[in-house]
Structures are given as C-alpha cells and as structure tokens.
Here is the input.
Amino acid sequence: MTEKEKMLAGEIYDCGDPELLELWYLGKNLARDYNLADANNIEDKKKILKQLLGGFGENLWITAPFYVDYGCHIYLGDNCEINMNCTFVDNKTIQIGDRVLIASNVQIYTSSHPVLPQERFVPDWRERQTTFFRTYARPIEIESNVWIGGGCILLPGVTIGKNSVIGAGSVVTRPIPPNCVAVGNPCRVIRYFDTDRERWQYEV
Here is the structure.
C-alpha cells in the first residue's frame, strides 16, 4: 500500500512521502497562480481551478486568497461561493453540495494526529526515513444549501446536514444535523426549522 493509498484509506501515513510531496507542491503552486491572477480574469481562474480541484459544478465563485493542501480532493456542486482567505486542508475528501455559501476565514481540516505524544511522534524516524510525527485524515462533507459563517473551523470527520447554518466563529467538532442553526465552541444546535413549511423554491 502506498502512502497516498494509506492517506485516502484513513490510515496513519507519511506526509513526507515523495509522491505526496509532489502532489502537495502542485497544489500549492496552482493555488498561488489562482491567488495572483487578476480578479476579473475569469477564464484564466477557471482554467486553474480545473487543474487544482477534484471537480466542481456550474457557477462556482472563489475569492482569493484561497489555500489548499492538495486541492485535488476537493469537490463542489453547482452554485457555490467561497469568500476570501479560506483554508481547505484536503488530505482526505472535502465534499461540498449545491448552493453552499462559505464566508471569509473559514478553515476546513481533514487531517489530524494522535493525541498521546508517544503515539504522535516517531522515535526512530531518521532510521525509517519518515516524518517525525504521525498523521491520519478523515473526510468532511457539507451538504446542499448550507451556509458556513465567517471564521468557522470544521474538524476532521464532520458532516454538515443539508439546509443548516453554522454561526460565525463556531468550531465544529461533531456532525451537525440537517435543517438547523448551530453555533459555538464546540458547535451545538440552537434551533431547528421546517423547510417544507416555508414552501421555498429555488430557480436553477
């Protein structure tokens, strides 16, 4: 099993592996190109996103600067907007549905490390020619019609259910159900709403 396969399988992996580093450098360089492109040069920015991201639908808007780890593990649906200064650490899949709004300074982290120091660090890392710490990753999913407020942090493995709103500055440590407003650190549901009762429609 390669280190990339271990990473995508959610196992402990070596993030200093040459294959992963090459992919990491590519993502960083493409993100740099995107961030330096003229704001009104829509065609060039779209071409860069096609190389950077794993996939995206129609009508995507990402305001620079935008930061990624690899980029290629990020997937977005139709009609999504990501505001400035967002960071997506996509060591595993970040899956985003349709009509998702992500405000400025949002941080999405799929990667983590063991809590205990004896598990987090590798004592013989030089002999094993690996990094001195252990890393693993968990996927993140943001379902359709979600709004993530400014400055939120999403931690590995969480899912945000469809239609929900995450209040500004929240730290999401566990899955959030659909059709609710959730806020705080740690993020908790403060109310639910009935989207059927609202009888709202969206014209695609």
About this structure: The two ends are 43 Å apart (CA to CA).
